[in-house]
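To whoever is on call:

I kicked off a structure prediction for a single chain this morning and the downstream step that reads the tokens threw a length-mismatch warning. I double-checked the sequence; it's 147 residues and nothing unusual in it as far as I can see. Pasting both halves so you can look.
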Amino acid sequence: MDPSTKYYLVDSSVLPEVFVKVVEAKKLLATGTFKNVNEAVKKVGISRSAYYKYRDFISPFYETTRGRVVTLFFTVEDYSGILSAIINKIANSKANIITINQNIPINALADVTVTIETDLMTKDIKDLMYEIGNVEGVRRYQILARE
């Protein structure tokens, strides 16, 4: 990799439409919805040349976390069973938990960090985070770091 290459995390709402459509086409191909590039690019409304021009340069954030160590951060309400619910969501995704750290609750809220390996996950990290965010008592959630 060229050491001068820089990467940015950008909200998709500010990207040119072609980038979003390239990602859509890549997903259609990866899931087997379409078997060839011609069908996928036709479905999303871009040219083959646009697809080939950008396909190696744009990926959803969750794809860059595959096969990596990722640290997740949560602020949770202090009640029995909430950490168990979070761990169950992680286990159901087939992520491998490496470490768990829960701080002492202050004002009935505790910070939790969980470090996981993602190489065997059966779902996207963004879907896992969304599921954990919907656990009753989870006040805040984010990806803190990835290796």
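Update from on-call: the warning came from a stale cache, not from the record. Cleared it. Sanity check on the structure: The first strand starts at residue 69 and ends at 77.
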